[in-house]
Design goal:
Layout (H helix, E strand, L loop, with lengths): L2 H14 L1 H15 L1 H61 L2 H10 L6 H18 L12 H10 L5 H14 L3 H5 L3 H8 L5 H18 L8 H4 L7 H12 L8 H9 L8 H9 L7 H14 L27 H5 L51 H4 L1
Helix pairs in contact: 6-12, 9-10, 13-15
């Protein structure tokens, strides 16, 4: 290079601007935005962080909300279960309307005489609706026949007695005829009723007493009747109430069992039972209350397993629940009229042997329980015990 060229080199460099270009390099880097980008990265991170934090917060809120939802669900489930249980329990609560009456009647506070009398009247009225045709179910045409039939009904059924008495009364129609009967012939005629020897002895004795002391007529007072052989107060009231129209209570096993079950008395002695029930009802109702109670005891309120679920007076009975309370099962326990079969609906007989048929009611019985079985005697299941 010549000296002139060497001297001109710095001037060229200055003219080309290389030196300023080097100084401008930082300026070139600035527009690239790398430094600001680096500074901005914390902001981006913050933004990213905030975006990431949002799901975290949501998750936390969700976690907090989950127990609340679970609690709400649990409460709803519990309420649903309670509602279901309440619905299921509803029928059980309805049936013990009787139980409520039971608690009220048999609670720690004794029932007053007035309250007991009122309840007895309601029971009598309810039974009258159902057993409007209640009557003595022994066949008879006069007081002597009823007296003999009642004596024979001890420890047997009315059906069996009614099957036996036609031949008996044909052979011995009057007290005089029966008093003169051959004991063995009489025993043979009444053999189907059971205990025929002791019953034959009673019939011979009472027939002789009627012939000798009463002119062959059956007396119309309790005091005279109970003096006859084999006749107790129960038999006397059967005869007085149904042959003479004299009011009286027939306290047989059915009657005594039911009035105790109804808590109308706690007495077990027949005479004391009679006295206490006499005080609860008007005299005019005594005879028919006996019939209705006996009908009910034979048909619905059985000794071992009463049909509580088919009972028309369940609401008045302090002993509701001693028997079957399910209505369908209770119906299967009902007993029916002579010749009737289980499952038949209540239907009174078209007529009664020896008596005109009663007028039919304008409507069906209120509760429609069963209409009686002859398997239990209405008037004589415990005649012997009453004597």
């Amino acid at each position: 290079m010549s000296e002139q060229e060497a001297a001109a080199a710095p001037a060229r460099k200055a003219a080309t601007g290389k030196a300023p270009a080097k100084e401008a390099t930082p300026a070139k880097k600035a527009p690239t935005g790398k430094a600001p980008a680096k500074k901005a990265s914390p902001a981006r991170k913050t933004a990213a962080g905030s975006k990431k934090a949002t799901p975290a917060k949501t998750t936390t809120a969700a976690k907090k909300a989950t127990p609340a939802k679970k609690a709400t669900t649990a409460k709803k489930a519990t309420a649903a279960k309670k509602a279901t249980a309440a619905k299921k329990a509803a029928p059980a609560k309805k049936a013990p309307a009787a139980k409520a009456a039971a608690v009220k009647a048999s609670g720690s506070k004794p029932e007053s005489q007035a309250a007991r009398a009122k309840r007895a009247a309601r029971i009598n009225s309810a039974l009258a609706e159902v057993y409007y045709y209640a009557h003595p179910e022994l066949d008879f045409e006069n007081p002597f026949e009823l007296l003999v039939a009642t004596v024979l009904s001890a420890q047997t059924t009315d059906l069996r007695v009614n099957q036996t008495t036609p031949a008996l009364f044909a052979a011995y129609p009057t007290p005089e005829d029966m008093a003169a009967a051959d004991p063995e012939a009489l025993e043979e005629l009444i053999r189907p009723t059971g205990f025929f020897r002791s019953k034959a002895k009673s019939l011979l004795g009472l027939s002789a007493a009627l012939r000798d002391d009463h002119g062959g007529e059956v007396p119309g007072s309790v005091d005279e009747l109970v003096k006859l052989p084999g006749v107790g107060r129960k038999t006397a009231f059967v005869v007085l109430g149904n042959a003479f129209g004299v009011p009286g209570l027939t306290v047989d096993t059915h009657f005594g069992r039911l009035v105790r079950r109804w808590k109308l008395t706690e007495q077990t002695d027949a005479v004391k039972v009679e006295q206490e029930i006499d005080d609860l009802l008007p005299e005019s109702e005594w005879t028919m209350f006996s019939h209705r109670t006996i009908f009910h005891g034979r048909r619905v309120c059985h000794s071992r397993k009463p049909a509580c679920g088919a009972c028309p007076i369940a609401e008045l009975c302090p002993s509701y629940g001693e028997g079957e309370t399910d209505p369908e099962k209770a119906k299967k326990l009902l007993k029916y009229e002579m010749g009737g079969q289980p499952g038949q609906r209540l239907k009174p007989p078209a007529d009664y042997p020896g008596r005109p048929a009663p007028p039919l009611p304008s409507r069906a019985p209120a509760a429609g329980p069963a209409s009686g079985s002859a398997a239990d005697s209405a008037t004589g299941a415990a005649t012997g015990a009453a004597r």
